[in-house]
Specification:
- The chain is an alpha/beta fold.
- Helix content is 37%, strand content 21%.
- The strands form three sheets. Strands 2-1-3-4-5 form a five-stranded parallel sheet, sandwiched between helices. It has a four-stranded antiparallel sheet with strand order 6-7-8-9, covered by helices on one side.
- The longest helix is centred in the C-terminal third of the chain and has 14 residues, at 202-215.
- The chain is elongated, with a radius of gyration of 19 Å.
- 31% of the residues are buried.
- Mean pLDDT is 81; it is low at 48-52 and 130-138.
Length: 238
């Protein structure tokens, strides 16, 4: 996933970019509000719809920018694109958070923050955008060959037959299924599904993957990418 990091402090940006890169993100760094807006919608483009196709999965927006107030930048971003925006700030008061959310921010992280929490929030807001090829028109279900996943009701069926999954099994399947073909790092999955760090949880992830393969009667559906993580292989369309 490409992530736009809007941060004027190069030292902070470098440290955060390194953490994000280790978790599979491609980070583009903007040092000002104007630079961020140019990255989201090039000035030579007259088509506002192109903002939604800029390729960024999330905008991580620091509010303390040198050229514009971060809230103002958030409002401009929201007018240009539906890309999820997470505000990052030292302002912890409730009024500031409400103001940011009213301007269109999807989430709000207060400094100092835990890296694991930030990663979980990034994955949470980014997975709200479901690829058109995975979702049926106008519904909240995912279709992957004989496998059907109903997101609102958390029900799964294979060839029309209901499959009983545990809560974590469903969360894991839904995470992978919303981005077929995308490799999810083990650390990323643990952060998103288990809301914790990788240490001591790796075996749990392996067990859940094995259980899903068995219950869905499709061992090839979830592919192991050796040394990295897992991805869901969308069945070929008939």
């Amino acid at each position: 996933m490409r992530l736009l990091l809007v941060e004027d402090d190069d030292h902070v940006a470098a440290a955060l970019s390194a953490v994000l890169a280790r978790h599979g993100f491609e980070v583009v760094h903007a040092r000002s509000g104007e630079e961020a807006l140019r990255a989201l919608l090039p000035p030579d483009s007259d088509d506002p719809d192109k903002a939604a196709k800029s390729g960024f999965g999330v905008v991580l927006l620091d509010l303390g920018l040198p050229d514009q107030d971060g809230y103002e930048v958030c409002g401009k971003i929201r007018k240009r694109t539906a890309t999820p925006v997470i505000m990052v700030t030292a302002r912890a008061d409730v009024r500031s958070r409400i103001h940011g959310l009213n301007l269109g921010a999807d989430d709000y992280v207060v400094k100092p923050y835990d890296a694991g929490e930030l990663l979980a929030r990034i994955h949470a807001v980014s997975r709200r955008t479901v690829p058109e090829e995975a979702a049926g028109p106008g519904d909240d279900s995912l279709h992957l060959g004989p496998v059907r996943i109903e997101l609102p009701t958390r029900q799964v069926s294979v060839a029309g037959q209901s499959v009983q999954l545990t809560r974590k099994e469903f969360d894991l399947l839904a995470l992978l299924a919303q981005r077929p073909g995308v490799v999810f790092r083990r650390e990323q999955i643990i952060s998103e599904v288990w809301r914790t760090s990788w240490e001591g949880t790796g075996r749990t992830l392996e067990v859940h993957v094995a259980s899903l393969r068995s219950k869905l009667r499709s061992p090839a559906l979830i592919e192991t990418v050796r040394g990295v993580g897992y991805r869901l292989v969308a069945p070929a369309q008939a």
